[in-house]
Prior knowledge:
Elements: E1 2-4, E2 7-9, H1 12-15, H2 22-25, H3 41-54, H4 60-69, E3 73-74, E4 80-81, E5 94-97, E6 100-103, H5 104-110, H6 120-124, E7 127-131, E8 136-140, H7 147-156, H8 160-163, H9 165-172, H10 174-186
Parallel strand pairs: 2-8
Antiparallel strand pairs: 1-2, 3-4, 5-6, 7-8
Helix pairs in contact: 9-10
Amino acid sequence: MIEVQSTLLHEDLINEDFVCNLSKCKGICCVEGDAGAPLEQSEKAILEEIYPKIKHLLAPKGIAAIEEYGTSVLDLDGDLTTPCVDGHKECAYVTFENGITKCAIEKAYEQGIVDWKKPISCHLYPIRITKYPEFEVLNYDRWHICKDACSFGRELKVPVYKFLKDPLIRKYGADWYTELEDNIASNS
């Protein structure tokens, strides 16, 4: 584990390569799974606020799910997540373009409709965070549906932490990321 401020990072984030390859996976990570995307408590209010602004970008079945379940839900483990269509299918916030799953929130962000890109757990994927009272642990979530991202990352020689530089800075700040790079360089 690598320690940076109040976080511990698994070495796989440095040693494994990863670059999303939407042309291959078609954004299946927003469709597969047993629950919606994990949310931070502060993101619940953001989703409530932006929903009216992004509703027109959502698929009808996504709107129906949000209208039925709410802009966020508690999953079977009691964790806050995005709602899913029919309670277990794709995230209610997805839209489909040319056979590729896209995030309607991110689309609204790119169009300047909202100033929030998407839930941080989505932006950070394949990193998953486990929170403890005194620190957070960042792990590499291995999922078979991301095999094309792993091979594409190896081809391009891009480690997970470099692929996720922007969301890591969004979550922890530029100083944190610089400290991470310094730690990696001093351990090389």
